[in-house]
Design goal:
By secondary structure, this protein is α+β, with helices and mostly antiparallel strands. 22% of the residues lie in helices and 29% in strands.
Length: 380
C-alpha cells in the first residue's frame, strides 16, 4: 500500500496486533466484565471509576420446621481508569512515504511494545492486592513445596484452569531443578522445559514468568487474637474485623490474617496493637461468614516476606481499555479486540510546527476478586 495515511484504521490495527502480542499478565485477566468500555467511545478519561459487585456468602442451616432468614450481603470493589499512556513522535516527509511494513518496523512496533511494557508493569501491581498468601523458607525448592502452595491456593476456591506467575529469579530456580526438567519425572513436558525454557503445566497449574512482576517485600506482624462477633460485628460487607479483648502482639498494615474456620484470609489496612485495640480495619470488606470465637493469626508471623509470584485464575484480575474519543480535525482511528483498545492520531502541531503521530490508550485494572489470588513469598 503506497500511502498508508489514507487508511489510518490499518495503522491502528497494526498497532493493536503488536500490543496484544506483547501482553502476558494482561491476557490472564478477565476482560469480559469490562467489555462496555470498548464497545464505543463514550468520553472515558483518566480518573473515571466504576464499581463491581462481588458474590455474597451464606450459612447453611439444618431445617427443623422453621427457617432463619438471612440478609443478602455482598461487597463491591471499585476500578479506576488510572493510566492514559501516550507515545507521540514526529513524522517527517521520509516517514510519510514508507509502506506499512517499513513504517511498522520503525515506529508502530517499538511504540506498541513500549506501551505494552508499561501496561504490564501497571497490571502486575494489582496482583499484590491478593488476599491469599503462601510462604516458605525455600520457595519452590522441590515438588513438595509446590504441592503445599497448590493446597493453599485450592482453599481459595480457584477454577481448575489456574496460573502460577513467577518472577525471573524463581523461573531460573525452577528450570535449574532436575525434577522439573527431566523426562523421567515430567515426561515430554520436562524435555520441553530443558530445550525451550517453557515451564508448561505443573501440579495442575500453567506456569508463566514475567519480567514485570513487582519486587516487593513485607515485614509481617506477630498479632494473635480471637474473633468477637457479638450481634452486629464481623458480618459480610463490613470493613472491620472485631476481636475480643486480651489479644497480643501487633498486626502490621498489609498482613494477611488467617481466621480459623474461614477459607480465605483478610488483609489488615493499618497497623494495630492488639493489646490495646479490638478492631482491625481491613483493606477489603469481609466476604464470607466469620466464625465467632475463632483464632486470628498472621500468616508468616514475624517474618520478612519477599514476594516472587502468585497463583490465580482468569476470574481474579480485571482490566479495561476504554475506547478513546476520536478528534474530528485529525487523521485518526481506533482499534479494539479482546477487550484491548488503542487510538492512533496524526495531525499538524501548530505550536511546534511539525507533523506528529500519537499512539495512546486508557487502562484500568484491579483485583476483581482478591480472594482468588494467592501470593507466594520466600521468608527470610
Amino acid at each position: 500500500m503506497s500511502n498508508i495515511w489514507e487508511h489510518p484504521e490499518i495503522i491502528a490495527q497494526e498497532a493493536l496486533t503488536h500490543l496484544e502480542d506483547a501482553l502476558v499478565v494482561t491476557r490472564m485477566c478477565a476482560r469480559d466484565t469490562t467489555s462496555e468500555f470498548t464497545t464505543s467511545a463514550n468520553g472515558w478519561k483518566k480518573g473515571d471509576t466504576i464499581s463491581f459487585r462481588t458474590h455474597g456468602d451464606y450459612r447453611a442451616d439444618e431445617f427443623t420446621g422453621t427457617i432463619d432468614i438471612q440478609d443478602i450481603r455482598s461487597s463491591s470493589r471499585p476500578m479506576t481508569i488510572e493510566k492514559h499512556l501516550d507515545i507521540s513522535v514526529e513524522v517527517t516527509s521520509r516517514e510519510e512515504v514508507l509502506d506499512l511494513d517499513s513504517f511498522s518496523d520503525q515506529v508502530i512496533k517499538p511504540a506498541a511494545y513500549r506501551l505494552a511494557e508499561d501496561v504490564e508493569k501497571y497490571v502486575a501491581t494489582k496482583i499484590l492486592q491478593g488476599a491469599g498468601l503462601y510462604t516458605s523458607s525455600a520457595l519452590f525448592a522441590n515438588a513438595a513445596d509446590i504441592a503445599q502452595a497448590r493446597r493453599t491456593a485450592t482453599i481459595q476456591q480457584l477454577t481448575t484452569s489456574r496460573f502460577c506467575l513467577v518472577d525471573l529469579e524463581t523461573e531460573a530456580k525452577l528450570l535449574g531443578q532436575e525434577w522439573f526438567n527431566q523426562a523421567q519425572t515430567r515426561g515430554v513436558d520436562g524435555e520441553r522445559s530443558l530445550r525451550t525454557g517453557d515451564m508448561g503445566t505443573v501440579m495442575g497449574m500453567d506456569w508463566y514468568s514475567a519480567i514485570t512482576f513487582p519486587e516487593v517485600s513485607h515485614v509481617a506482624g506477630d498479632g494473635v487474637g480471637v474473633t468477637n462477633n457479638g450481634t452486629t460485628a464481623n458480618l459480610i460487607g463490613l470493613s472491620v474485623l472485631t476481636i475480643a479483648g486480651g489479644g497480643t502482639g501487633t498486626v502490621n498494615a498489609g498482613d494477611r490474617l488467617q481466621i480459623a474456620g474461614a477459607r480465605r484470609p483478610v488483609i489488615a489496612a493499618t497497623t494495630v496493637d492488639l493489646t490495646t485495640n479490638t478492631e482491625i480495619p481491613l483493606v477489603d470488606p469481609i466476604s464470607e461468614i466469620i466464625p465467632d470465637g475463632a483464632a486470628v493469626t498472621v500468616i508468616g508471623s514475624s517474618d520478612t516476606i519477599n514476594f516472587h509470584g502468585a497463583i490465580f485464575d482468569d476470574r481474579s484480575l480485571a482490566v479495561a481499555f476504554p475506547m478513546l474519543d476520536m478528534p474530528g480535525d485529525k487523521v485518526t482511528a481506533t482499534a479494539a479486540n479482546n477487550g484491548v483498545s488503542i487510538r492512533v492520531v496524526k495531525g499538524y502541531d501548530m505550536t511546534h510546527k511539525m507533523t506528529t503521530l500519537s499512539m495512546d490508550l486508557l487502562c484500568g485494572a484491579f483485583a476483581y476478586d482478591p480472594r482468588r489470588i494467592t501470593l507466594v513469598g520466600e521468608t527470610v
